[in-house]
Each structure stands twice: as C-alpha cells, then as structure tokens.
Amino acid sequence: MSTSLLTILSQQLTIYIGLFLFIAGLIGGILNLIVFLSLQTFRQSSCAFYLTIMSIVNTSHLFTGLLTYIMINGFGIDWTSMSLGYCKFRYFYVALCLLISLTCMCSATIDQFLATCSNPRWYQWNNIKIARYIVIGAVILWILHGIPFLMYYNHSVSPTTGTTSCGITNAIFQKYYTFFYLIVLRTFIPMTIMILFGALAYRNVQQLAYRTVPLVRRELDKQLTVMVLVENFCAVIFLIPMVSVNIANIVIVTPSNSFTSTLLTFIGNVTNLWLYLYFMVSINVQ
Predict the structure, then answer these.
(1) Sign of the dihedral defined by the CA atoms of residues 104, 106, 110, 112, in that order
(2) Domains of the chain, first to last
(3) CA-CA 20 to 30 A from 180: which of 35, 171, 200, 208?
(4) pLDDT (tens digit, 9 = 90+) per residue, 145-182?
(5) What pLDDT band is residue 215 in, cutting at 50, 70 and 90?
(6) Strand, coil or helix: what is 20?
(7) Model's pTM, two decimal places?
C-alpha cells in the first residue's frame, strides 16, 4: 500500500466515521440526560449521578475533541494553528473532560461495590452528598492539573515548511505527558480500578439474592451494576489499543522512512477514532 493511499484512506475514515460518531454521540448524550434527569429514582442515586456527570462531560467533549479532530485530520482545517488561545484551550479541555469522565467511571464502579456490600459501614459511603463532593473535588483537581497544558501548549513554526502548528514546547512537560499522563494517568490507573472494583461489585451482586434487601433497591442495584460493568468492559477494550500505540510511539522515536511515518500516523488516527467510539458507546449504553 502506497503512502498516498494510506493518507487518503486515513482522511476518509476520519471524515465518515468521525462524523457518524459525532452525530450518534450527540443524540445519545441528549437522550441520556433526559432519562437520568427525568426519573426520580436515578436523581437520588449516587451511581446515576456519576454517570450523569460523565454523560455531560462526554457530550461536551465531542465538540472540542472530536469535531476539531475531524476538521484537522479529515478536512485539513486546523483551528488550533489559527488561534493561540484555542490551541491552549483545546488540549486543556480535552484532558479535563477525559480525566473527569474516567474519574466518574471509576467512582461509579467503586460506588456500586459499596452499594452492594453486606457491611453497613461500607454501604453508608454510598451517598449522593458524598458523590457531589467527590465530583467537585475531581473537577478542581483536574483543572489545576491542566494549568501546564495552558502554559506549555504553544505555536511553533517549522523551519523547513514555514507552517504553524500547535504543540508542547517544554521538554519536561513533554516527558510527563508522554510517560505519565498518556500511559499511567489516562489508562493504567483507571483500568486497574475499573477491573478490580468491577469484579468485586459483580461478586456482591451475585450474593444479593441471599440477603434481606428490599426488592426495589435490589433491582436498582442490579440494573446500575450491569450498566457500570458494561461501561467498564467498553473502557478496557477501547483503552488498550491506545496504550499500545503510545508505547509504540515511545519505542519508535524517529521513523526510518516516510512510509513508516505515514503508517504510524494512520494507526494513530484509527486508534483515536476507536477512543472516540468509546465516548459514543459510553453515552449510549447508559
């Protein structure tokens, strides 16, 4: 397969699959919010609260994250290179949304583990008031975490082509972004939490039938736990390829030829679309 064919295929996939994911995710996110906000049962549940916040964040992320990605890689229109303010804001907001979304997913998984525990001392932490404090704390934490994104994402001009691009201009932050943010903070830690507490919540749900629990609460716990476990499965499936690509980019620092460089770019585009598919799926499975 030639370099030009790979480039054209990458652009077409980005346009058609990306636009489909954007429209489907937007419609699913709006319907999701209507369901969560209209039902009294869900409004009183801490787990449903986490999923509602995650749905809001994922839906808003579609505009700054996916839509901009489609314009850059599909149509060749890079808004981040046209405006320094948008260059800084876009990468700050994408990181913020992704980390809040993963925090809510991990919190919902832990919450369902606590909700299905037989120990009353653990169950008391399954509380809508505590959930609100956790979300507020997470938002503040990830906003502070995003300050370096606002500082170190800047415009740089290529000495060979003279084109302006948006990227990290600090070597230390680049290492943090590559080795810790992408691999550890954005993938390894949330995947570990979701797998561990998802398995524990599943075990607790299997034992609910043998406990003296009101029928309404038992069915709600089962419904929310299934919802969370499906979300966990989707997250793990969609995050694993991203880890592999990030590690490959670290190992292959400088591609040996133009075809290898184009192939890595193509794989990166496919992997990014795969990650945005997670946002669409996570919105619609709720």
Answers:
(1) positive
(2) 3-284 (1.20.1070.10)
(3) 200
(4) 999 999 999 998 888 777 888 999 999 999 999 889 98
(5) very low
(6) helix
(7) 0.85
